[in-house]
Amino acid sequence: MSEPAVEVRNLSKRFVRSLDFVERVANLVGANYREEVVSAVDRVSLRVDRAEVVGLVGESGCGKSTLGRMLAGILEPDDGEILMGGEHLNRLDDRRRKAALLSTQMVFQNPMASLNPRMRVVDTIGQAPVKHSIVPAREIVPYVDGIMRQVGLDPATRNHYPHQFSGGQRARIGIARALAVKPSVLVCDEATAALDVSIQAQVLNLFMRLRAQLGLTYLFVSHDLGVVRLLADRVGVMYLGRIVEIAPAGRLFADPQHPYTRALLADMPQLVAKKRRFVAIKGQLPSPLNPPMGCHFHPRCPMAVARCRGEAPALREIAGNHSAACHLV
Amino acid sequence: MTTSAPSVARVLPSQETSSHHTAPLRNAVLKVRDLSVAFASRGGALTAVDGVSFNLAAGEVMGIVGESGSGKSVTGLALMGLIGWPGRLTGGSVMLEGEELIGMPESELRRIRGRRMAMILQDPTSTLNPVLRIDTQMIEAIRAHDTVSERAARERVCEMLSRVGIPSPRERMLNYPHQFSGGMRQRIAIAIALLHRPAVLIADEATTALDVSIQAQILAEVQSLAEEAGTAMIWITHDLSVVAGLADRIAVMYAGRLVETGRVDQLLEAPAHPYTAGLIACVPSHNIPGTEVAQIPGSTPSLARLKAGCAFAPRCRRSTAVCGQVPPLVSWGEASERSIRCFHPVIDIGARS
Fold first, then answer.
1. Average pLDDT over chain B, rounded to whole?
2. What does the alpha-carbon distance between residue A228 and residue A223 come to, in Å, rounded to a whole number?
3. Quick one: which of A39, A54, A47, A123 has its CA closest to A85?
4. How many angstroms separate the CA of residue A92 from the nearest CA in chain B?
5. B209: buried, middle or exposed (CB in 10 Å: 19+, 13-18, 0-12)?
6. What pTM does this model have?
């Protein structure tokens, strides 16, 4: 059995919009304003093994990015535990905690928003490794050159600014920056979503090559089922803050068990030249401010029974490595 | 029905005899000839759309597919007469039901836009006025073209909103755009575009920003509404798989030119242009998990650095010296329903006409 690279247990994140002044005053005189709370991630447990690629899919607002950000150490969870390399993150001393956090890096969707437009590429990539004493400052240029070559960028462009690169090259800069601190885990949040099809193919190949060369572990967050199917060993499906199904990729796409996964796969546009009747999941994603009781999916589920309205199903194993959260499977 | 094995792995041939592919025989509602658009820049004029020609039959759905910078959106805007400075129409003709739109005075164009030809944009927040209620802006859109009472217009708004799947439209039309979700806003934009049952509807990446489940809903609704009203559609997208299930015909654009057009089943089964073949091959769901994706080397050229000749040649494995010239658009197949702009097609296109 392989060892876990990252593991989360019962992780939760809530976003709270607190009352503004007017509302607080109104409450004093008897109005009934309440804080709005969104449970973006709701008691999620997930384990990513070393050198494994786990894909996380779901519609916007399902909490997949929030989960990814907590794993990457950008967001502090409200509840639950994060284990890196088998150790509880918040039980480590400062030095080791820093090292653990450094070993998980993030690649973002929009390179134009995640790269500093006023920084040369050599600084964007080289700042963190110098700061964290991975490379001495005087050796930074050859170090950056090496990483640029690794991700398919021309080192001669090291003094250029982000706007001088094409979309695909900017995506590569984002990857290079993450790789510069020698991480073992990459959290990729819609890392290829903004790219053209032909460029996306190039970047996906880069991800695969880097994984083979460096033995990287990926958590690949994406709404694009085709991309996830291509890259991931295991795929988790999220709905309103919870993982509703998780299974090895081949199994999930061939034999989905949760009604939501089935509907999601049926909606996936396919490159088949045939007029198809688009049929869709009934209704739309409910407001996360006020999620349905019981199973979050029941108002849209064609198979829902009385039990689904009252009782939230737990994620349980239904076959080897394949878990689903549904009363009916 | 037996069809020859598809030449591209996993592109399935149509399973049914295609009753809906008879569209090209009908009368064209839209005839576009040599449409060209240039943008003024410091380095001189950049040609964003270069001699685009096609016909669109009543009720037909044509997909225009291309990557960013291919000129697909500019083509859509040019058809609507919406090219503004520094862009400029440099030539061509757009005939809508026999009437020439190019050179038409703006006042007359305004009577056509929104009534006989409508457009859906990618971002509904840019279509909808944030400070007006939905009913206000929709009634305004109706009364801009039709002389009807406000009450009658309100009824039409209500009906159209329920047709595009807005629940309890009578109450919801009193809301402002920000009170709707992204998918609902796009439905409203579609409802506005369909208010006058236009002859031609142009959708520019209309479902790109939406989740797959919402996208499927919207495609389903647009499909049935357009069928009912006999509306011809131009569906502009970068995503081949969206138009694969929606369109009758596909036109592929690259660097401002149409490089291949054809019936959707033929084009996906047996693409002729190396670029089309490459685009189809690099769709993730067409590749075997865990293996390298087929890829087109290089990236889309900047218009400013476009070399003479075939724009795809620098990325093309088949290019030769002759590609230094612009290949002509040649047609073949029964009724010349396919055309391609390439000297070295990947399939045998028979005797060139």
1. 86
2. 8
3. A47
4. 35
5. middle
6. 0.83
Give, to the nearest 10 degrees, the angle between helix B274-281 and helix A197-214: 50
Alpha helix locations (H) across B69-105? 72-79
Residue type at position A47: R
Sign of CA dihedral A274, A275, A281, A284: positive
In the block, residue with structure tokens 């967001």? A75
Is residue B93 predicted with pLDDT exceeding 60?
yes
Alpha-carbon distance A238 to A260, whole Å? 9
Smallest Cβ distance to A204: which of B68, B264, B293? B293
Give me the residues paired with residue A54 across strands: A219, A234
- Does B155 reach chain A within 8 Å, measured CB to CB? no
Interface probe with A: pick from B15, B259, B282, most Cβ of A within 10 Å: B282
Prediction ipTM score:
0.78
Q: How far apart are CA B95 and CA B175, in angstroms?
A: 38
Q: How far is A279 from chain B (nearest CA, A)?
A: 6
A-chain residues near B239 (CB < 8 A): 197, 269
Please state the length of chain A. 329
CA A94 to chain centre: 26
User: Which chain B positions have a beta carbon within 8 Å of A271's beta carbon?
Assistant: 10-11, 240-241, 244, 268, 280, 283, 285-286
A200 to chain B: nearest residue by CA? B282
Beta strands of A24-129 (E only): which ranges? 36-49, 53-57, 79-84, 87-88, 104-107
Q: What is the three-state SS of B263-311?
A: EHHHHHHCCCCHHHHHHHHCCHHHCCCCCCCCCCCCCCCCHHHCCCCCC
Query: B275 CA to chain A: closest CA distance, Å?
Result: 10
pLDDT per position as a tens digit, B24-83 = 445 789 999 999 999 998 888 899 999 999 999 998 999 999 988 899 999 999 999 999
B71 φ/ψ angles, rounded to the nearest 5 degrees = 95, 10
Q: Which residues contact B4 (CB under 8 A, 6 or more apart)?
A: none
Find the largest Cα–Cα distance for chain B: 67
Condensed to tens digits (0 to 9), the pLDDT of residues A150-192 reads: 999 999 999 999 998 888 899 999 999 999 999 999 999 988 8
The Cα B45–Cα B122 span in angstroms is 27
> In sequence order, what DSSP letters do the residues of B148-214 get, joined into one string?
--HHHHHHHHHHHHHHTT-SSHHHHTTS-GGGS-HHHHHHHHHHHHHTT--SEEEEESTTTTS-HHH
